[in-house]
Amino acid sequence: MTVLSINLNKVALLRNQRDVDYPSVTGMARIALHAGAGGITVHPRPDERHTRRSDVYELADMLKRDYSSPVEFNIEGYPTEDFMDLVAETKPDQVTLVPDHPDQKTSDHGWDIPAQREWLTEIVARLHAQKARVSVFVDHVPEMALAAAEIRADRIELYTGPYFECFFRDDREQVLSLYKNTAEVARKAGLGVNAGHDLNLDNLAHFLRAIPWVDEVSIGHALTADALIYGMDGAIKAYLKEIARKS
Ligand SMILES: CC(=O)[C@@H](O)[C@H](O)COP(=O)(O)O
Ligand SMILES: NCC(=O)COP(=O)(O)O
């Protein structure tokens, strides 16, 4: 069964609009987990406009202290030395390496792994030494799945922004077949497959029906918007229903 990991960046973004402590990032994490989410994702950026470093420490403490059954904690980001320190101190289960420039509004492309092969190989090895699973954010390009295996990553995360963009267009199945090819190459190379970015209640089940072996989806923006309508608990349940609908 595909794990649903909730990205709390947009909860933090709303909280950051004022000098207050609500909505609470840890509080929303608790509601999400109680409703059946299997994991929590954060993507702390250097300017702290979304999740702050302090949120990452608080979430790490809470998940270790209060949850006995496994809850997967996933930290996403560009591996600066500051990011590597944060990860070393908070010990997430999974680190997702994303090639974001600090000025980017949001993640909008995957790694060109061959162009940074040596450095990424070293980063992956350092994260493995801390016992973190390592996932690398990639476009729907089969060669990148092979390159991810070569740098010894454990998983790829398919960047699904382009899938969202084509969902109501005529070329949807053509684009989706490239995602499927990339996921097949990853699977054959022994890698797990995650997916994320702009997945939503319209497009999630269709994606998972095409690639049913996806290990995990991380969803934040659309799910937080849906939580304004259904409540966080109701939104999580709606997404879990879509995941179940794939089979
Ligand atoms: C890697 C990825 O696609 C997500 O982390 C995305 O960057 C969401 O973050 P924001 O919601 O902060 O844009
Ligand atoms: N890795 C993708 C993620 O965490 C959430 O992306 P989005 O649903 O906020 O677009």
From TrEMBL:
SUPFAM superfamilies: Pyridoxine 5'-phosphate synthase (SSF63892)
Keywords recorded for this protein, A-Z: Cytoplasm, Pyridoxine biosynthesis, Transferase
Pathway: Cofactor biosynthesis; pyridoxine 5'-phosphate biosynthesis; pyridoxine 5'-phosphate from D-erythrose 4-phosphate: step 5/5
Residues marked Transition state stabilizer (site): 157
InterPro entries per UniProt: Aldolase_TIM, PyrdxlP_synth_PdxJ, Pyridoxine-5'_phos_synth
Amino acids binding 3-amino-2-oxopropyl phosphate: 7, 18, 198, 220-221
Catalyzed reactions per annotation: 3-amino-2-oxopropyl phosphate + 1-deoxy-D-xylulose 5-phosphate = pyridoxine 5'-phosphate + phosphate + 2 H2O + H(+)
Broad EC category: transferase
GO MF annotations, alphabetized: pyridoxine 5'-phosphate synthase activity
Amino-acid positions noted as binding 1-deoxy-D-xylulose 5-phosphate in the UniProt annotation, renumbered to this chain: 45, 50, 106
Locations listed in the record: Cytoplasm
Function: Catalyzes the complicated ring closure reaction between the two acyclic compounds 1-deoxy-D-xylulose-5-phosphate (DXP) and 3-amino-2-oxopropyl phosphate (1-amino-acetone-3-phosphate or AAP) to form pyridoxine 5'-phosphate (PNP) and inorganic phosphate.
Subunit description: Homooctamer; tetramer of dimers.
Designated name of the protein: Pyridoxine 5'-phosphate synthase
Organism field: Kiloniella laminariae
